């Protein structure tokens, strides 16, 4: 069992429900969100609309979430209008990844640090790494060192370290393809095993569901079936058994209905997951009315449909377990 300080435990309590379940809202998208807002408005993206949208999501939805994840670049104004009982995670990485060299290398926000995240009122550092466990050792060793540095910085500032890992295959261009769906589970499980090692000082793993639901029997539509529902549940159970750390699910762009179906499968599988950090599945449809019509129209969608999405997700999280079962507080 991983041991954490009393200060880290206090921050973890701020980020979770009284039952120790993390029901967090993610609005740390930057480049992709700018693009979506611009497309909905049918005009070039600007620096104001993205800030205003994040503020709207924060003020309308944080009363129903245990915590919110945002970025220091556009999201700080949104942190000022969040619910007083809502904890705060701040991203440390730049949006996307370095495209000037192979390997989807991460990079940090230039004018950010663990200390600054703490001083901005952050309860945790969130860092995203793209990872292919089967890629070359030279590339992955750089990523291992990168995560080690962020973990050490979080520990020095007595903040929880939430590591988000998104898997890919260096030889498969389309992560939404059937080809990748066939290898995704292996990638996710190997990645979780790697970053559960103590040298990374991860407090909570933010991970993918170990399959693409659009290729699961009953949810596949016109796609071929890659996994039956029983096979999908078996993968969720294996995922649970591969780490002793608290772990939470990311929504990865699926719909709210699909994400809730995935969470229910995890419960049925007996998976020991500890909550969610859900983004687009909760608020993405608000983009169109917000950008194409008005802020009022966007807020109306968030206050009704967005609220319903979070409440439905919170209901589905009844099968989640407390992070306190996996973390020991040092005396």
TrEMBL record:
UniProt entry tagged with the keyword Iron: no
Enzyme type, top EC level: lyase
Catalytic activity: D-tagatofuranose 1,6-bisphosphate = D-glyceraldehyde 3-phosphate + dihydroxyacetone phosphate
PANTHER family in the record: SULFOFRUCTOSEPHOSPHATE ALDOLASE
Keywords: Lactose metabolism, Lyase
Coiled coil segments of this chain: none
Family membership: Belongs to the aldolase LacD family.
Associated pathway: Carbohydrate metabolism; D-tagatose 6-phosphate degradation; D-glyceraldehyde 3-phosphate and glycerone phosphate from D-tagatose 6-phosphate: step 2/2
One Pfam family per UniProt: DeoC
HAMAP family: LacD
Protein name: Tagatose 1,6-diphosphate aldolase
Enzyme Commission number: 4.1.2.40
């Amino acid at each position: 069992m991983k041991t954490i300080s009393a200060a880290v435990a206090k921050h973890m309590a701020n980020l979770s429900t009284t039952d120790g379940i993390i029901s967090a809202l993610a609005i740390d998208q930057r480049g992709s969100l700018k693009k979506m807002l611009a497309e909905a408005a049918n005009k070039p993206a600007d620096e104001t609309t993205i800030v205003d949208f994040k503020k709207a999501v924060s003020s309308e939805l944080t009363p129903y979430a245990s915590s919110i994840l945002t970025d220091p670049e556009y999201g700080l104004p949104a942190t000022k209008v969040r619910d007083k009982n809502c904890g705060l995670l701040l991203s440390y990485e730049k949006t996307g990844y370095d495209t000037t060299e192979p390997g989807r290398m991460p990079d940090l926000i230039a004018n950010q640090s663990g200390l600054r995240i703490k001083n901005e009122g952050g309860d945790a550092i969130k860092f995203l790494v793209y990872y292919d466990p089967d890629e070359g050792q030279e590339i992955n060793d750089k990523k291992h060192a990168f995560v080690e540095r962020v973990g050490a910085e979080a520990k020095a500032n007595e903040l929880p370290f939430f590591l988000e890992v998104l898997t890919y295959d260096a030889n498969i261009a389309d992560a939404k393809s059937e080809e990748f769906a066939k290898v995704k589970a292996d990638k996710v499980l190997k990645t979780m095993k790697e970053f559960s090692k103590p040298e990374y000082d991860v407090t909570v793993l933010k991970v993918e569901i170990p399959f693409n639901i659009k290729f699961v029997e009953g949810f596949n539509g016109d796609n071929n079936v890659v996994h039956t529902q029983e096979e999908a549940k078996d993968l969720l159970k294996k995922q649970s058994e591969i780490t002793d750390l608290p772990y939470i699910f990311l929504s990865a762009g699926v719909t709210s209905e699909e994400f809730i179906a995935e969470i229910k499968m995890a419960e049925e599988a007996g998976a020991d997951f500890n909550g969610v950090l859900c983004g687009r599945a909760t608020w993405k449809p608000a983009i169109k009315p917000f950008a194409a019509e008005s802020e009022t129209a966007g807020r109306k969608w968030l206050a009704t449909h967005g609220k319903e999405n979070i409440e439905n997700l919170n209901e589905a999280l009844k099968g989640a377990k407390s992070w306190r079962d996996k973390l020991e507080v040092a005396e």
